[in-house]
Each structure stands twice: as C-alpha cells, then as structure tokens.
Amino acid sequence: MIKKSAIEISQLCKYYLESGRQHVIFKDLSLSVTAGEFIVLLGRSGSGKSTLLNLISGLDPPSKGHIEVNDIHLCELTEQQRTIFRRHHIGFVFQAYNLIPTLTVAENVLLALELIHAISDYDRDQVVSLLTQLDLADCLDAYPDRLSGGEQQRVAIARALIHNPDIILADEPTGNLDIDTGKQVLALLENLVRKAGKTLIMATHSEEVTGKADRVFVIKNKALTWVTDKR
Amino acid sequence: MRRLLKKASRHFLYLHPWQLVIAILGITLGVAVVISIDLALESALHTFKQTTQALSGKASYRIIASDGGLDEKLYTHLRVGQGVQNLSPVVNGYVHSTAITAKTFKLVGIDPLIENTFQSAWRQDNKTGNNLRLITEPNTVLISRQTAQSMQLQIGDSFPVTTDTGRHILKIINWLPENNARELFAHLLITDISTAQELFGVLGKLSTIDVVLAHDPAATIQRIRQALPANVLLMPLNEQAESLRQMTQAFSLNLTALGMLSLLMGMFLIYNTVSFLVIQRRLLFGSLRSIGVTRQQICRLIIEEALLLAMIGTVLGILLGIILGHSLLPLISGTINALYFPVDHSVLKLSPLQIGKGCLLGIATTLLAVLVPAWEAYRLPPHRLLLRSELESGVRRFIQSAAWLAVLFIFLGLSLVLLTGNNISMGLAGIFLMLFGFALLTPQVSFVLMTMLERLLARSPSVLVRLPVRMVKAEISRTGCAIATLMIVVAATIGMDLMIGSFRQTVSEWVKISLPADLYVSLSGNMQASHKSAADHLLKQRLAKLNEVEMLSSVLRTQLFRGHTRNKVSVFEINEKSRQGFIFKQQSHEIWTAFNHQNSIFVTEPYAYHHGLELGDNILLRTAQGEQAFAIIAIYADYSGDQGHLAMSRNNYLRYWPDLGFSGIGIYAKEGSNMIQLEARVKQLLQPYQTVKSEQAIYQLSMQLFEQTFRITETLRWLAGMIAFLGVFSALMAIQFERTRQLGILRAIGMTSGQLSWLISIETGLMGLIAGLFAVPVGFIMAYLFIFVVYLRSFGWTLAFYFNAGVVFQGFMLALVAAVLAAVLPALKMAHTKPADALRNE
Fold first, then answer.
1. How near does any CA of chain B get to the CA of A230, in Å?
2. What is the predicted pLDDT for the residue at B842?
3. Among B350, B369, B386, where does a domain finish?
4. Which residue, A34, A46, A182, B716, has fewest beta-carbon neighbours within 10 Å?
5. Chain A partners of B754 at a C-beta cutoff of 8 Å?
6. Residue A87: which of B466, B750, B836 has the nearest Cβ?
7. B151 within a domain of the structure (yes/no)
8. Global ipTM
9. Are B540 and B626 found together in one domain?
10. Closest by Cα among B282, B483, B272 to B376
C-alpha cells in the first residue's frame, strides 16, 4: 500500500536580510515526508533546522519554493489562514518549552483545545487523562515556573498532542534537559507519536535519536543531505 | 571596565529608542509645565513691578488717595509750603486708539520739569528740551518707536484716541527711549500732566505723587505725613508691590500645585521607563553580576543613565517651558487683571534662578523616580536577577508593604489637611500626600480585585477568559504602576471636573440671585472727573422719569483706606427688591435699618475669611475727619473676586466721603413693560462709554468671565493629563512589548492576530476598569478637599458640592478608553510580527 504524503517541499529557499546583506539559509531544498514517518534533522547550530520547522508549521513564510502539508499549499495561505492551519494540523514542542507562565499546567494544555472549539467536560477529562499518562497528575493546578525542566517539557508535549494534530514538530526538545530526563522525554514522545500514527519531525543534536528515526537528514551547506533510511 | 560596562548597557538602550524618547518626553513635559507656570506668573508680577519702576525711577514712596484722587493743591502745599523736594505728580488712566488696529494705552501724565533725581526709564536719552514741548504743545505725547511704526506713524504724526470725555487727537513729538525697559513701553504714552487732566476730565486732580527721599528720609517722611489729610497716605512702593504679590499668593500657589501635579505624572513616567529598562536588562545585569560586577557598579550605571536622560529632558523642558510660558502669560495676566490688579501687557522674563529651579526639579524628580528600580537591581543577588518570577514575587511582597505605607500616607495627608488651620500650602501638601498614598495603594487594590475576579471566573471552563486576568495579576510590578498612573489622572480629572462644576453651579445661582433688577446701566468713568457725579445724578433722574420704570437702585464701586491698605467697597442704594440680591451667610437682626442709618457695614465672605472678621466686629475706615468704626452686621456670599470687599449704604458713605457718582444703576421695570423698548429708551439717555444690559446678558457675561478665569486651570489640567496618558501608554506598551515572546507562543499554538489583539485589549481594558473604579472614590475625595479645603483656604469661598453623574461616567470611560487605546500599538505590532520572530525575541 502506498502511504499518503504528509509533507511535500520543493525548491524551498529562505534568506534573511541582515544589515542590508542577504543571508541565505536554504537554497532549492526539497523533501517528501509520508504520513506517520519519524524524521530527524541534524545539523550544526545556525544551520537552519529550526527555520525549516518554522516554515513547515507556517510560523515563517518561505522566500521561494513550495510547501504542501496534508494537501494544503502553505505558500498560498494568508497569515491568518496559516494560523488556523497550525491550530488544527500542527503540534509544536520547543526546546525552551514555551509554556504560558500565567496559566496552570492543565490550562496550558486546554488552551490548545480551546483555540479550536469551546471547552467541554469531555475535553477536561481528556486533558487530565493525557497529563496522567505523562505522569503529571499531581501538577494539574501548578504554574510552569514551579515545575522541573523535564516536567515542563512533558506539559509541552501534552499541549502539542491534545488537539490530535497530524504533524508534530519538535525543535531540540531535549536541548535543555539532562541526559536521563532527555531520554525519558524522547521515549515518551516517540511512543505517543508512533502509537497515534502521527508524523514527527525532530530537530536535534542528539545522535542517539537517529537510531529511532525512520529517516535522518543533515542540513549542511544550505541543503538537506539524506543520511539514513530505515523504511 | 566602566567603558565596557556602559557599552554593554547602552546597546540595549539603542534597541529601545521609543522608550527613551517617552522617558525624555516625560521629564521634558513635567519640567516645561512647572517652568512655564513659574515664568508666566513671575513675569506678570515682574512686569507690574518693572512698569512701576520704569515710570517712578528712584522714587521709593508714593502718596495715594482713594478713588476721589488727590487735590493738586496738595502737591503745591508739600513743595512750597513744606519745602519737600523731589516730588513727582502723576495723572494716569487708559486711552483707546483705533489707528490701524485697536489698542489700549496706559497714558501717564507727568511733570517734564521735575528733578533728574527720579531717573525714570522713560526720561533717559530724552533731553529736557524735547520734553518741554509736552508742556508747550497741548495733546502731545511720547510713544515707543516700534509701537508707532506698527501703527504706521512717525514723529510729527497725529492719531485719534477716545476717553470718557470723548474723542481726542494726540500728536507724537518724540520716541520713548530704547533702553532695557523698551518692551514695557509698547503700550505706554507719556504726556504732560495738564494734557492728561484734560483728556480724563480731572482738572485740579492728581492720581498719585511719587517721592524720592534724598536727604534725611525719616524727617522728610515725618514732614510729609504731618501735611497729609487723614484720608491720604504715604506708602513705601516696595510695600505696595509686596501687598499686591501677597494678593496673588493663593492664586500662584494653586497654579504651582497644578504644575507639580504635572511633574508628579512625569515622575511616574520616568519610573515606568527606568524600571522597564532595568527589568528588561535583568539578564544583562545578572550576567554582569555573575562575572564579578558589583552591586554598586550596576546601581551607578542605572543612575548615570537616568542622569543623562534627566539632563537631556531638563534642557528640552526649559526650552519648551519658555515657549509654553509665552502661551500661558496672556492667560495668567488676564486672570490677574480680572481678579486682582491691572498688569499691563506682560513680557516674559527668564531669570537664572528659574533656570536653576528647572534643572533642580528635572534632575531631582528623575533621581527620585529611579530610586526604586535602582534599589531592585541593587538588592537582588545575581541568580535571582535572572528570574522574572522571583522579581514578581519580590514585588508582590513590596506592594503589600507599600499598601501599609499608603495607609500611613493617606492618614498623614488627612491629618495635615485637618490640623493645619488655614494654611494653604499645608492643605495642598496634605492632598498631594493623600494622592500619593492612593497611588501607592493601587497595585495592592488591583491585585486583590484581580484575585477576586479570578475566583469568580474559576467556574468558567474557558482558559481564554481567565488569561487576561492572570496577565494583569502576574506582572503586577508593571501593571500596578500603570493602573496607579491612570487612576491618579482620572481621579484628578473627576475631582477637578466635580469641583469646577460645583463652582460653576454655585456661581451661576449666586449671579442669578444677585441680579434682581431687569436692566443694569454701567457708568464706568474716571471717578476723579469733576463732572462725573453731577452727570450721573442727572442720568439717574432721567431714568426714574421713564414711564416703564418702577424703581431704581444704585451702586458705587470705590476703594477706601482701612489702616494702610486700600479696600474695595460697594456703596449701595437699596430698594425693597434689591434686598433679595444678597445671599447672607451670617446676619444680625433688623439689618436693613442698621445698614441705612447706623455706622454699620456688610462684608463679603472672602473678606471676612482673609481678615479673620466675625459678625459684630468693628472695622476702622479712614475718613477726612479721622478713623471711623463700622460694625459688621452681615457676612454675605460673593464670588466676584477672592480678596472680597465691604458693602455700605449710600447714606452711610456720604456722611464721610465725597460723592463720586455711581458705577451702576439697576432698573426695575413695571409689570408688563416691554423690555426691548425700555432698553432702547435707556440707551438713548446714555453717553457712548456707558452701557445698558439686561439681567440675562450680564448673567451670560459673568459666566463667560468665569470660564475665562478657569481657562488657565483647564489648560494646565490638560497638560498634566497629557503627561499622565503618555505615562500610561508608555507603561502599557512596555508591558506588551516586554512579553513579545509570550505572545509569540500564543501565535505559534494557533492564536490569530485578531484574537491576540482582543486578548491584549481585554487585559488593558481590565486595567482601565480597575483604574476607573478606584478613581471614582478618589476623585470624589479630591473634589471634596478642593472645595472645602483648598478653595476655602485660598479664596475664602464656601461652595456647594454638586454631584454630576455625567462627570463620573466620563472619567470612568476615560480610564477605560485610554487603556484600550494603549493596546492598539502593541496589537498592531504583534499583528505585523511573524510568530517565528516573536519566538526568537528575548
């Protein structure tokens, strides 16, 4: 059976203007990701891993080229439409967790759902269930600044998954964590995403993750180089 | 090391230019308002003093009489009979010219032959020979070259003027000297004494006699005083100027207080900006502390930056103050003219002392404002500097302590207000202390209100509903200060609007009651004019003969000496109906019989207040026969001026003083008379300089004058408001810009820019709501204190408190709208910021 394509990127270019000079991040980058795949992006700091994730999620528009996610042409969408797209299709896990400091753990997760529809008791139960699954049942009413890094990242994973998006983007999710906590978080993320059949693209420095990925790419010299393919 | 430290710190400042601009603007506007008020006030009073000096030269004493003027024989008697040298007789008044543009000149008649010992500024450069032409050629004048040229006149040209005695032609024979006093000469005409007497119709009369005490001053003073009649005084000129200055003291103090309110708002603005800059750089300071930079070095860095801002802001503030002072000068001079004494065409005068005062104010205010943020940066250890949450929890403890301090300030302020008797400065200081206390209390009140609202919303399943409340609460260090600033300005607006409204209503009712007649004839004119009294009486007889006239009343507004001061006196000829025109605050029994037939007197409320007089007290007034005692039998309301005046019956007055005619005649028409016809018939009997107005027209004029005197207050209030709103905008915008990353996260997880704008608006709206809610009671307290403390102590007026729901609603809406408006810019910025960029922001 031919798997459906989740992400199609072709001839993608991204550059920034810095002090009047054009700073090229990618040039003619192409990539095809099938639904349910686990992709790892490797590369040095500043190579453009985060930028690629931002482009796929619609946080940043490309300078040139095409991005198609679940048959939606992102380049043809307005800023408003890209936001709505992100709301439904993307779950984002950041290196710095990026939780809202003024909301409790449960509220941080519920917010992602409320942006899609009005909250019901069923949604609340769903949130509690997911957070319990992530071993955060005791922290439902705690504020993020009272949690450890690992706990915060688990909340961020819950927020990324609660609205059942097709694609999970993780930008160095273990970058701020110690080795053991990092392993736990990775295992959790892989487990949840694999089980739910979601597409996962993870930018990381960790070589350890590469063993679990379906495909591994390196961003080098403004281009994407394929490293391994387990498919 | 210090250079590198400064570089590390200033790079951040370059990235936030708008914050710097707003901080500088805060200092600039605060200093500008205070400087401009000081400049305008001082200039108006200085002009008065300078004009006197320019005309009187070295004269140190002046012989003055009440409105009847001095008999010119007195001058001859002093000079020839008593052998007093160095006397300068003066006749002055105002003439109107319509050449090219309408202009009012002060015309001063002098003796061109008097001794050079006077060294008057008008006399410099003019050879006596030239001045002699003033005597030899009638109707000749000296005028300033610039003024003449603006009227397209040259030496030898003539121009028309009008006085009470009619139209006259004046001829220019020379220019006034172009010395230091030339600006004061712009509206001055110098002529010979006899020309002035003819122009004003005061033959045989003098306005004043200036005296230079050359040799043996004490003996000369003694000699002059012995030769003067009982109702003529020899007054030191500086004492006269001082008494005029004291007259305007309360007015000056109230304006200065308004200026200080602007500075207080500016201080909030500086505090907001500097604390924003400190909080934003906590990472930088934390890093610097971690690598060994000391607390003192960080603290010095912040203070040096603030000093730099203060210096730039102060210099700009002084420059703007001078410009603003030019605009305020006519308003302030106008009010002094209307309420106190004539200040002729004031010129703005800047002294080094005022510049020094401005510098001190700007720098001291800035340093005071940065104390708290500098202390914050000083006291936190390096690791805690890095955490915003630690900072906020520290602030939460601080606002709890501040709330207790606030209660102490409010209590102290209230005690100052209640326990300082009639002291205006202490009353104002008490109000300021209370206001500061309320501002200090605001963050805690906001925190408590937000906690209550949060509990109320806890039942709502929506996270988005709770988010704005949490945002206000979580960053109370910033939101609290913005709410406090907004609360103070809205409270000041509500307080002043309620006060002005109450004052307007009180005055309106007073004017209506004090105008019982149907028509009023104004008989302005020089009271020294020999023909005036007879002409006034003739007119009164003619008016009484008109068919439609039922009865008449009259008033003469003059001045009489009580001790060494001139006091305004209204001399009434009262009928049955005009008795209704008084609102008595206190009165004895059978006052009308006593008023007409005994040595008794009424005093206005401000007069009684300023002089500490009560019912039954006696007032000694100078008459030609010596001092006479008049018993106070009533104290009545009067809002026509803040110095107050005396009122006596015409019968009483004529027993001791000469008949100077009338200042006004009230006409009571018979039932059913056609008022328009009557007014027209009265007009036919009047001279061109006399007017007749209906009671309604006078009411409208009075209310216009009321609005005019409040224009300066309104202007200053708007300036203070502008600074405060700038502060609020700056604080609210800083809060939003500071959390760009947080807003970026919301965008990243799917919040649209519209939803984000809504969220920001709800948050700032909530802040406006708290400010508005808290501002209502504080505004009420302010209005109450203004009416029953400041106005009573300053002017001696008791006003009724009128509640106006519209004012309260407007104030409340002002807070809400201003807060929501402040959200527009950050919302627009967020809408145009790519979420990826916002997420990168630190």
1. 31
2. 45
3. B386
4. A46
5. 80
6. B750
7. yes
8. 0.87
9. yes
10. B282
Q: Looking at the domain assignment, is residue B776 inside a domain? A: no
Residue contact B836–A60, C-beta within 8 A? yes
CA dist B400 and B553 (Å) reads 66
Q: Which residue has the tokens 């430290």?
A: B5
Where in B413-524 does DSSP place strands (E)?
519-522
Cα–Cα distances in Å, from B805 out to B231, B679, B808? 53, 40, 5
Q: Which two tokens stand for residue A109?
A: 């997760």
How buried is A211 (Cβ within 10 angstroms: 0-12 exposed, 13-18 middle, 19+ buried)?
exposed
Residues B221 and B76 in one domain: yes
Q: Structural domain tally of chain A? A: 1
Binned at pLDDT 50, 70 and 90, residue B630 comes out as: very high
Tell me which of B459, B460, B463 to substitute to probe the interface with A (most A C-beta atoms closer than 10 Å). Answer: B463
**Residue from A102, A115, A141 to probe the interface with B (highest B Cβ count within 10 Å):** A102
* B560 and B628, same domain (yes or no): yes
Q: Is residue B33 part of a domain?
A: yes
B627: pLDDT strictly greater than 80: yes
Q: Are residue B204 and residue B262 in the same domain, yes or no?
A: no
Number of domains in chain B: 3
Most A CBs within 10 A among B396, B743, B745, hence the mutation to make, goes to B745
Question: CATH code at A152?
Answer: 3.40.50.300
Longest alpha-carbon distance in chain A: 53
Give the range of the structural domain holding residue A54, as residue numbers without chain letter. 37-62+78-229
For B47, list phi and psi in degrees, rounded to 5: -60, -45
A22 part of a folded domain: no
Q: Which residues of chain B lie closer than 8 angstroms to A145, CB-CB?
A: 387, 389
**Residue A56, in any domain of the structure:** yes
Do A114 and B471 make contact, defined as CB atoms within 8 angstroms?
no
d(CA B767, CA B763): 6
Chain B within 8 Å of A128 (Cβ-Cβ)? no
Assign 3-state DSSP to chain A and report helix, strand, coil percentages, each to 5.
40, 30, 35
| A197 pLDDT higher than 80 | yes
Residue A91 belongs to some domain of the structure: yes
Yes or no, beta carbons of B474 and A102 under 8 Å apart: yes
pLDDT winner (highest mean) among A55-69, A182-196, B176-190, B260-274: A55-69
Task: Note whether B640 and B583 are same-domain residues.
Answer: yes
Pair B114, B140 in one domain: yes
Chain A residue whose CA is closest to B461: A119
Rg (CA), chain A: 18
The answer to whether the beta carbons of residues A199 and A33 sit under 8 Å apart is yes
For residue range B795-834, what is the model confidence (pLDDT) as tens digits?
A: 888 888 998 899 889 888 888 888 888 888 878 877 777 7
Q: What is the mean pLDDT of residues B688-713?
A: 84
Q: Could you give phi then psi for residue B339, rounded to 5 degrees?
A: -105, -30
Do B213 and B79 sit in the same domain of this protein? yes
Ranges A215-224, B736-745, B759-768: which has the least confidence: B736-745
Q: Which of B44-53, B524-533, B595-604, B722-731 has the highest mean pLDDT?
A: B595-604
Interface subset of B 220-279, CB within 8 angstroms of A: none
Which residue, B230, B260, B277, sits at the end of a domain?
A: B230
Domain span at residue B634? Answer: 524-689
- Asked if the Cβ–Cβ distance from B839 to A84 is below 8 Å, we say no
In a domain, B698, yes or no: no
Closest CA relative to residue B732, chosen from B705, B760, B711, B704: B760
Residues 384-403 of B with CB under 8 A from A: 387-389
Residues of A in contact with B839 (CB under 8 A): 59, 94, 98
Interval A101-138: pLDDT, tens: 888 999 999 999 998 888 888 889 999 999 998 888 99
Asked which of A167-171, A226-230, B9-13, B346-350 is least confident by mean pLDDT, the reply is B9-13
Q: Place B632 in a pLDDT band, splitting at 50, 70 and 90.
A: very high
Lowest-confidence region among B110-124, B144-158, B764-778: B110-124
Higher pLDDT, B243 or B167: B167
